[in-house]
Design brief:
The chain has 480 residues and is α+β, with helices and mostly antiparallel strands. It folds into 4 domains: 71 residues, no CATH class; 137 residues, 2-Layer Sandwich (Beta-Lactamase), CATH 3.30.450; 81 residues, Helix Hairpins, CATH 1.10.287.130; 142 residues, 2-Layer Sandwich (Heat Shock Protein 90). It is 48% helix and 18% strand. The protein contains 9 helices and 13 strands. The chain has a 6-stranded antiparallel β-sheet. It has a 5-stranded mixed β-sheet with strand order 8-10-11-13-12. A two-stranded antiparallel ribbon has the order 7-9. The protein is rod-shaped. The relative contact order is 0.07.
């Protein structure tokens, strides 16, 4: 069961069914209430119409015996001011809801339905209860109540309307007339039965359709999952997941997954090349150093101390470069310190032969950026090392501002970098020609480190043609 409802398709089907169920219950309740209200209102209108017909007859002096009380077999009562039943439907056997449960009339008037003048005068004097009426006038206000009545052995629920009327000879009377509620009960019960049968069927259809639609919609996702599982099992990052032709969210998910696989494949391949190149680069100084130490152990007089120190220093620098690249690859965030690039450039250029620093007039107060002073100093040192290896005679460092950017340029007067290789030189362990060999001190990591540090600081590092004809490396960083 937990596995079933752990499925997105099952949860979507259950959620859609529940939402539709709540909506149907709310709509059904509203329909039933509206239907019942309308039918009750219609019954009340019919009861009032019947009561006013009898009240009209009383207003014109119709005797009780001649009143139309048995029309449509509806219960009718006529009650005087004292609450005495003076007229009622002939077959009325029982009644509730009118306040007068008597079904056999006891008229407080003469047998012919007319009273004496004194009684009429007394009724005029007592006309201080309820709606004030003139003789022969029917009241405008109607009181509605619900009850039941038994007529000729049949018991039903009724809605009663009470209409007051004032007569000349019989005083104030109240006519109660009822309209049956059987139509209201029948309609409400029928509607309820239809809902009880139709709603489950409709919910079953909604659930079934939702299940089919979600299965069709999620079928590509299952294909993506199976392919990813196969890629994980085979460790073949060259494989790609199928992209459906629906141009929807699932298709975009598949495309993004393939882009992620491509990036992962590139990263893994780059990591493999890095490990291979690092092993190769480390093998050479370690082998050379071991050879010199073994020779020195056997023949101390043959020890090349300067060569051993040189190999050790080279090995130390290479290990430091590899550690820095590993930290950068791990996403190490640079420190948020304030660094003056102009002062840093002067510091790194100091003591280097043929290197000059030029600052624009607008940066006399310094050009400050946020970042790691050590890493940014490493960038400048690597750029200067690279420029000095390729320069004929001079290297110039320039510091300036360009809008919101701080720009440091390192230019040499060498042969420059061919346009086709201006991105390749920033790859790790890349040497363009024999001039950049191990004997010249380059392992092919300096420019790669410089660009990675620049990117980690939110900047860029690019190479162009220098004005003097060599290469111009430009470091652009957001100014603090």
């Amino acid at each position: 069961m937990s596995r079933l409802f752990g499925s997105v398709r099952a949860r979507a089907t259950l959620g859609a069914t529940l939402v539709v169920a709540v909506a149907l219950v709310a709509a059904g309740a509203a329909v039933l209430l509206s239907l019942r209200s309308n039918l009750l209102g219609e019954a009340g209108t019919q009861a009032e119409r019947s009561a006013r017909e009898v009240a009209t007859e009383l207003a014109v002096g119709t005797p009780y015996a001649d009143l139309s009380l048995d029309v449509d077999d509806r219960p009718v009562q006529v009650v005087d001011e004292d609450g005495t039943l003076v007229a009622a439907s002939e077959d009325l056997e029982r009644i509730t809801g009118t306040g007068v449960e008597t079904v056999k009339p006891r008229p407080a008037a003469s047998p012919d339905g007319t009273g004496d003048a004194d009684e009429a005068d007394d009724a005029d004097d007592d006309d201080d209860a309820g709606e004030p009426l003139e003789a022969g006038e029917i009241g405008e206000r109607t009181t509605v109540s619900d009850g039941s009545a038994t007529i000729d052995g049949d018991t039903e629920d009724y809605r009663f309307a009470a209409v007051p009327v004032k007569t000349d000879d019989r005083g104030r009377l109240t006519v109660y007339a009822g309209a049956p509620l059987s139509a209201e009960h029948g309609a409400v019960n029928t509607a309820l039965t239809v809902m009880l049968i139709g709603f489950p069927v409709l919910l079953a259809v909604v659930g079934w359709v939702t299940w089919l639609v979600t299965r069709r919609a999620l079928r590509p996702v299952e294909g993506i999952r199976r392919e990813m599982a196969a890629i994980t099992a085979s460790e073949d990052l060259a494989r790609r997941v199928p992209v459906p032709g629906t141009h929807d969210e699932v298709a975009r998910l598949a495309s993004t997954t393939n882009e992620t696989l491509a990036a992962l494949e590139t990263s893994v391949e780059r990591q493999r090349r890095f490990v291979a190149d690092a092993s190769h680069e480390l093998r050479s100084p370690i082998a050379s150093l071991r050879t010199q130490l073994e020779v020195a152990a056997a023949h101390p007089e043959l020890l090349d101390l300067d060569g051993a120190v040189e190999d050790t220093v080279r090995l130390q620098h290479l290990a430091a470069d590899l550690l820095l690249l590993a930290r950068l690859d791990a996403g190490e965030r640079p420190a948020d310190a304030r660094v003056d690039l102009a002062a840093l450039a002067r510091e790194e250029a100091g003591g280097r032969a043929g290197v000059s620093v030029r600052e624009d007039a607008g940066v006399a107060g310094g050009v400050t950026v946020a970042g790691s002073r050590g890493q940014l100093g490493r960038v400048l040192a690597n750029l200067l090392d690279n420029a000095q290896r390729h320069a004929r005679s001079a290297v110039e460092v320039s510091v300036r501002r360009d809008g919101d950017l701080a720009v440091v340029g390192v230019a040499d007067d060498g042969e420059g970098v061919p346009a086709a290789d201006r991105e390749r030189i920033f790859e790790r362990f890349v040497r363009l020609d024999a001039a950049r060999s191990r004997d010249d001190g380059g392992a092919g990591l300096g420019l790669a480190i410089a660009r990675d540090v620049a990117v980690r600081h939110g900047g860029t590092l690019t190479v162009h043609d220098a004005p003097a004809g060599g290469a111009l490396f430009e470091l652009r960083l957001p100014a603090a």
